[in-house]
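Quick check before the chapter quiz. The format below is the same one you will see on the exam, so make sure you can read both the input and the output lines.
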Amino acid sequence: MPSFRSLVRLALVCAWVAAGIFLAYVSTLVDAAAQYLVFLPVVVACSRAYGAREGFLAAVLSTVALWDWFVPPEGLSLPDRKDALHLLAFFAVASFVAWVVSKERRSIAELTGENLALGHKVFLMRSLRRGAQ
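Here is the expected output.
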């Protein structure tokens, strides 16, 4: 059974993708062909805030949303070859972005831990040095 925390993360990823769907819909109202672009910040935000799995999930949900609502013909029927290639390219880029951002997140967490340990060592060395004088 999934934990409460993982269910909350899933709900938040779905909320981010829903916000992306709304922004993509608004972009169609103003005749801007930016439906694909609004989902990349969603993938970045999910990867940055929650990790690689959630970023990849956001990429999958965004691709399905694009396929269902913004790629002709409407619905989940098979798109033509050009639109299918666009969807595959979007999914590949979004997955790569999710991976890169999650690696950055992990590196920042490791560096923060090492920085804290180094700060503690410097504090101890200064304390010992003051005690020796």
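If your answer matched, good. The radius of gyration is 21 Å.
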